[in-house]
Specification:
alpha+beta, 3 strands, 2 domains, 5 helices
Amino acid sequence: MLLDPADAKLFFRIQLPLLAFVNRKLALGEELLTNESRIKVRDTLFSRRDLIELFATENPFHLSSEEIDIVRSWRHAVLGEFYVLRQLKSHAIFLSIEKPGAAYAVVALTQPFEELITGGLPR
């Protein structure tokens, strides 16, 4: 299942300014982020989660308070490696490979997991 298109649009409308902010603050690369550089900036952001609060406090892109609350919630993002166990109607089941393990219900943003994961599940 995919995230509601309006919510996916909101995600990208908030995420891109956050990544641009991190890129500028840490002088990580080019002003215009490519897919490859966006991954580098995202990884840096989650290794420096204090930048999320700095972005929220400075709010350089004048996001609404609701959007800032969403940004602040990303401090709790779960990163790592996962097994994708099953695709259900409403979400996929991801299982963390790290100890202790945990299971997560995950909704795809804009492309179904079936298109992203080849070779069948679990994967």
